[in-house]
Structure formats: structure tokens, C-alpha cells
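Standup notes, structure subgroup. Blocker cleared on the zinc ion input:
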Amino acid sequence: MPKPGGGEVLVEVGVAGLCRTDLKLIEQGHRDLILPRVPGEEVVGYVRAVGKGVDESWIKKRVYLYPGTSCGHCRSCRHGAGNLCVSMRIMGFHRDGGFADYVVAPESCLIAVPERLDFDAAVFAEPLSCCLNAIERADPQSGDRALLFGAGPAGTLLARVLSFLGVDVTIVEPDERRRVRAGALAEAPSAMFDIVIPAVGDESVLDQSLERLAPRGRLVVFSGLSPNAAVRPIDVNRLHYLEQTVVGAYGCSYRHGVTAIKWLAAGSIKVDDMISHRLPLTQLDTALDIVRTRTGMKVLLYPSGYMFNSTVSTTQDKDS
Ligand SMILES: [Zn+2]
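Run returned:
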């Protein structure tokens, strides 16, 4: 049982989301990973204890944990990009994360989850926040057309947010089951798009993305590539003559988490239909296989047995 230090809280994990990044850091490592480490950066749960100096009214509250901690005064922090803080520390990377019964987090990471929002939906706040950051970087305008590569959990969330913002979205997905579910196309159409986001870590898709970018279009590099594949030639004359922009997006800031919880609670972004598997944490290997083989969509993990059981019955209620 970890103990919260000054300024920290102890959270009993209710649900932890699994994503491709977890698979990557477990199998290949990650730029920001410091070992040994408990992974898990998508976490909701109950505050069970608070450390010195923390407001005790947090105890028993349902919370989503924004996974980062930023300094609040460096140049990135002052410009609303806490995710790029010079001293950024990420749960599951620099400090232990939510693939556990309990996790300790700084009070500054807490975002209250409203009663009407169940944990299974609230845990999407983290991937949704990363999508909100990416879409902010894409600077969507009314009437824009967007092309997304990949109808996995991230691509689906990006599509739903863009649609919510009034952008016309086209998705390309090679896998037939995902394609049918998302109403996606097998191949990129010949049209040009104002916003292109490859939500798959595949270098050939990055090249296709540049080809489909309209004049003044914005390409968001949302997924990292392997270091060898990441160094790629780009026709800068095309950027010059067509006034195109290529931007990166990595992670999310605290304020994105606040917006994500608000939108999820309001039902603006639907996520329930994206949950393909609910598994106890003891089946993490099975869960990682599902992500590796892309045979599911969102996989949720339940560290405490009673939470898992109660959620299963909730699921049956919803299905009936
Ligand atoms: Zn900072």
C-alpha cells in the first residue's frame, strides 16, 4: 500500500484504461519511461487518503487523474502547454501508474468526476484529452474537411470530437471490422483535406497524409514512429507553395482533462460503444494481446475484484 506524501493523495483505482502506448512501453520502452515502473496512465478511482497539506474534502470523492505534473511557470506552462513542461512527470512513466489496486498522485492532478458520469466512461478522459490537444493543434474551422487514418480508439475519438465541432470527417481504416463499425473507407479518397491526422504509427500513412493535404491544410503528427522510420524526406516546396502546416501533438494538459470530463458528463462525446473488453487486472497479458492484435477496441482493466463484478452487472443492464 503506497503512502501519500505531502501534497499527494492515495487513490483506490476503479478503472484503468489500456492503450497502445502501454503496449509500446512494455514491449519496446519509451522516451519518457523510467524503470522500474507500474504502468497505467488512464485512471479513475476514489480518493482514500490525503497527505500533508491536501484538502481533506477530497476523501471519498470520485476522481479522474490527469496523468501529468507540470511546474506551472516555465515557458510551455505559461503558454498553455503544460504537457511540454520542462519538468513534466507522467504517471505510468516517471512515477507509478494505475495498473494496481492503489496509486499515489499529486493533488494537482485531481479532476472530480460528476456523479452522473460512470467510471467506464470517465476513464476515456485521458485518451479524449490527447485528442483535444491534437485537434487544438489542427485549428479546426467551420466547414473544414478532415481525413483520419485509423478507426481504433484514438481515431474514433478524434472523429467524434471533430464531428462535434462541425467538421466533416472521412476515416480510412484497412481492417474490415473496424471499418464497418466506423463507416470508414478502405483507402484514402482522391479529395484534398483541410485537416489530416494519421492516428496510426505507420510511416507510409504519414506520406499519404501529406499527399491528401489541401492548400493551407494542417497535418497533425499524432502518433510517434520508430526512430528509424521517423526521419523522412518532406517536399518543403509543397509546404511553401500550398502554405501548409505540419504540427506535432503529444499528450495533453490539465485543462484538456477538465474539458474532457465536462464533455463526457454532458454526453457530447459518446464512448460506451467503444468498450470491447472489461477484464480484471490479473488478465493484463490477455488485454495486451487484444491491443497488439487489434482484435478489440477499448480495453478496460479493473484492479479491485468488487469493482469488476459490479461493472459487469452494470454492463448487462445496459445491454438488455
Ligand atoms: Zn513547466
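Discussed briefly. The chain has twelve helices and 14 strands.
Next: hand off to the docking folks.
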